[in-house]
C-alpha cells in the first residue's frame, strides 16, 4: 500500500504566488496538455516555462509524462485541496472573530 505524501503548504502557496503558474494551473484544470500548449499564451521562453513547471511539480501540483519527444502535463489537485482546507479553517476563524467584534460594537452603540 502506498503512503500519501504529506502536502508542504509553504511550497504550494509559493508555487501559486506567481501569475504564470496560476494560469498554468487554470489551464490544466481543463485537462492534460503539452508543455508547448502551456507556453503558448505566455510571452516567455520555453526554458522559463519549464522552470515554472518544475516549481509546480516540486510542490506536488503537476505531473509530467514523456510521450516521445513531447511532455504531457496533468494537474494533481490534492495539494490545492489541502491549501483550500487550511484557508477555510482560518476563514471561519476570522468570520467568527469579526462577528464577535460587530456584536460588541452594535451593543456599545445601543447603550
Folded structure, characterized:
- The chain has five helices and three strands, in the order ααβααββα.
- A hairpin with a 2-residue loop joins strand 2 and strand 3.
- With 111 residues, it is α+β, with helices and mostly antiparallel strands.
- 15% of the residues are buried.
- The protein has one domain: Orthogonal Bundle (Arc Repressor Mutant, subunit A), CATH 1.10.10.10.
- It is elongated.
- The termini are far apart.
- Strands 1-3-2 form a three-stranded antiparallel sheet.
* Side-by-side strand order of the widest sheet: 1-3-2
> Which structural class best describes the helix and strand composition?
alpha+beta
Second-tier CATH architecture: Orthogonal Bundle
CATH class: Mainly Alpha
First and last CA, distance? 63 Å
Mean pLDDT: 90
Largest sheet: 3 strands, antiparallel
State the fourth-level CATH superfamily: Winged helix-like DNA-binding domain superfamily/Winged helix DNA-binding domain
Low-confidence stretches: none
Topology:
Elements: H1 9-15, H2 19-28, E1 33-34, H3 35-39, H4 46-58, E2 62-67, E3 70-75, H5 78-110
Antiparallel strand pairs: 1-3, 2-3
Summarize the structure.
By secondary structure, the chain is an alpha+beta fold.
Features:
111 residues, alpha+beta, Arc Repressor Mutant, subunit A, three-stranded antiparallel β-sheet, 5 helices, 61% helix
